[in-house]
Amino acid sequence: MLTVDNLKFSYPKHSADVDDKGTNTAEMQFNLDVQAGEILSIIGPSGSGKTTLLNLIAGFNSPSSGSIIVDDVDITSLKIHQRPVTTVFQDNNLFPHLDVFTNVAIGIQPSLKLTQDEKQHIHHALENVGLADFHKRRPKELSGGQRQRIALARALVRKQSVLLLDEPLAALGPAMKDEIIDLLKAMVEEQNMAALLISHQPTDAFRASKRTAFINQGKIHQIGNTADVLGDSADKVIKQYLGES
Question: What is the mean pLDDT of the chain?
Fold first, then answer.
């Protein structure tokens, strides 16, 4: 389980946004819980703080106050490599000069000095994403959807408690999106991870998540059942984002 408790992040304002009091910093603040085995979708306008939230959890940014709790352990002050967190990005961050097997292997052993059990674990992860026969290919020989599957396999082998997904569906067509979402749901359930999925598309949230958080101006504007947050009962701010106002 992941708990983000009153997590605050201060950042400098653009010069044009400095208020009458001369305040030149702004603050984001987040509170949320994600259960093990759950994918919580994160929706909101560009610049609202979605990626900042993920960066705080992963350790790429440091909060000014608040806490991040994973499985009852406070990880707020831990370094990036010490956190039980793995991240999948939109561009999948594969190494173009390495084959598929090696790209996945780096997820568990950057030195690539693998035990036999680790090698078997990698093959199993590739089987889970349907690419066991592609282990000798390089990323340029794969489709966009296949490359994203490899990124997910690399996340799978790390066996971390928290999975952060920063717009991994953005470059995919509708059919491939559905395929990747099905894979994500199965993976999160199998490994009992707490997952956060950023997307700009409400349809992705409806497909992937029972619950959705809408972020606006650096805060959780609303969190709850996806149909309640993004459906007919959505409030004015969310309807404006959805283009329904």
Answer: 89
